[in-house]
Amino acid sequence: MSAAEDPGPPSPPPRLRVAVVGAGPAGIYTAEALTRQQEVPVAVDLIDRLPTPFGLVRHGIAPDHPKMRAIRDTLHRALDHPAVRFVGNVEIGRDLSCRELHAAVDAVVYTYGAALDRQLAIPGEELPGSLAATALVAWYTGHPDADRATVEAALAGARSVVVVGVGNVALDVARVLARTPAELEPTDMPQHVLDALAGAPVERVTVLGRRGPAQATFTTQELRELGELAEADVLVDPADLELDPAAEERVAADRVASRNLAVLQEWAQHTAQPGRTTVTLRFFSRPVRLLGEDRVTGVEVERTVVDADGRASGTGQTTVLPADLVVRSVGYRGGELPELPLDPRRGTVPNDLGRVLRGGEPSPGEYVAGWIKRGPTGVVGTNKHDARETVATLLADVAAGVVRPGSSGDDDLVTTLRANGADPVLLEDWRAIDAAEVALGATRGRARTTLHEWESLLAAVKDAAARTR
Ligand SMILES: Cc1cc2nc3c(=O)[nH]c(=O)nc-3n(C[C@H](O)[C@H](O)[C@H](O)COP(=O)(O)OP(=O)(O)OC[C@H]3O[C@@H](n4cnc5c(N)ncnc54)[C@H](O)[C@@H]3O)c2cc1C
After folding, report:
1. Which top CATH class is 15-115+333-425?
2. Which atom in ligand 1 lies closest to the alpha carbon of residue 56?
3. What would the DSSP string read from start to end of 69-104?
4. CA 24 to ligand 1 center in whole angstroms
5. Is 210 a known ligand-binding residue?
6. Ligand 1 atom closest to Cα of 369?
7. What's the rounded Cα separation, in Å, for the pair 234 and 32?
8. Residue with the nearest Cα to atom 20 of ligand 1?
9. What pTM value is reported for the model?
10. Ligand 1: distance of its center to the CA of 29 in Å?
11. Of 295, 345, 368, 457, whose CB count within 10 A is highest?
12. Residue in 112, 189, 217 to alter for ligand 1 test, most ligand atoms within 8 A of Cβ
């Protein structure tokens, strides 16, 4: 064979180019599952609209839960993988449409979460002093889009707080509001958040659950923690803990519900101690109206009964609870991304094992994982199994020839984004933000302080780039 005829060594198989939209736990676990498999070589662009990764691990998990927040270190390993590129500060639907993104890569996995709040749909809900938990949580975790003025105006002068909802987020909110400044001091909350919380005169927090203790969705660990606050006592009305036969059956069959009940029974013996904040858990209570003229002054609460299937209905018996601040924590839902289908009722993208369905049919090369796939349920780790399922579906489509590695050409996504006028923040840039947060925290003896403004986040990137030039 002459040299001209020698085909040389075989060229490596083309890499499967995948864009993952959202660098929260679901996006990061998707990237991890893609890099851990051996079937197909991959190149993953992990895109987020924020210049920072971790989604709700950064802007959801309560800052007074440092152990839980430390899961960032584990998640970071996937970002460090050579086949994964973090592409922050890029919003799909604004900087690049779904269609353009899909054309630029072989497959897209949408993991953009479920960041919108569910409404109570009762009169007065829009009054100043009524906040969605999403708004309060975004503010206390330093999300750069938080509406600081609205939250701080609602918090100023708040002595009596009503939190609507009995899930873990409601408990996070009640706990953060009932903590002392000294308890919050070591957290990574921005300084203005610590100052505003220290200045809020909160004396009473009432958590309202429309169903009974047997149906509450909080976990026992979160519940117990309420009882360990430095200067707050938890109160429960013993009458709320009397179970009907259906609730008894439920508690007997559900370990979490029975452990929760044991904790609540202990608290039912408590009485309020003078000078200490109270956190009262009220069950069988649903808000029917927020009262007030130009801001919230109270909540009209209706007593409920719960049927054998766990459904609550009103009894018509109402009382008024004074409240200067109402926080609605009744769930999250996914929002629409232009050009992507959404089931408005469930707030999720219709899918079959992670394959996006358009008009009921699988859309080749489009997938979902995490909260936008299954709804806002489970803990961080739940997204790992969920992402693995989606990646298995994607790989099955590659094996079946539905998705072809290399079919999208060689154009680099970051180059395309820059040509479109976007300013992507890459892994080194995120490291600069990370270092700036650690340095800011050190000025007050803390491990970290969250940078909470777009300007300061992007300035940290620019300052680091200027130093290395
Ligand atoms: C207040 C709160 C507290 C919680 N506390 C705990 C806890 O203590 N323990 C626990 O285990 N779990 C907790 N969870 C649950 C946990 O945070 C979720 O299971 C998990 O974050 C869901 O992951 P996700 O990746 O689907 O969504 P997310 O974490 O929301 O990530 C979605 C990402 O997509 C990005 N994004 C959105 N739109 C776009 C777009 N158009 N273009 C590009 N990027 C986009 C967002 O910026 C975000 O980074 C909590 C949740 C909440 C809301």
Report:
1. alpha beta
2. 29
3. HTHHHHHHHHHTSTTEEEEBS--BTTTB-HHHHHHH
4. 5
5. yes
6. 26
7. 41
8. 380
9. 0.95
10. 12
11. 368
12. 112
Q: Which of 397, 337, 386, 340 is nearest to 107 (CA)?
A: 397
How does pLDDT run across 62-72, given as a tens digit for each residue?
999 988 888 99
Please state the domain extents for the chain.
15-115+333-425, 139-328
Q: Is residue 110 a contact partner of residue 22, using CB atoms and an 8 Å limit?
A: yes
In testing the pocket of ligand 1, which one of 28, 45, 61, 389 has its CB within 8 Å of the most ligand atoms?
61
Residue 179 in marked binding region: no
* 139-328: CATH topology: FAD/NAD(P)-binding domain (3.50.50)
The two three-digit tokens of residue 146, written as one number: 């938080």
The rounded Å distance from CA 371 to ligand 1 centre is 7
79-134 per-position pLDDT tens digit: 999 999 999 999 999 999 999 999 999 999 999 999 899 999 999 999 999 999 99
- State the Cα–Cα distance between residues 255 and 226, nearest whole angstrom: 20
DSSP E strands: which ranges in 307-393?
A: 312-322, 325-328, 332-333, 351-352, 355-358, 361-368
148 is in an annotated binding site: no
What atom in ligand 1 is closest to the CA of residue 370? 26
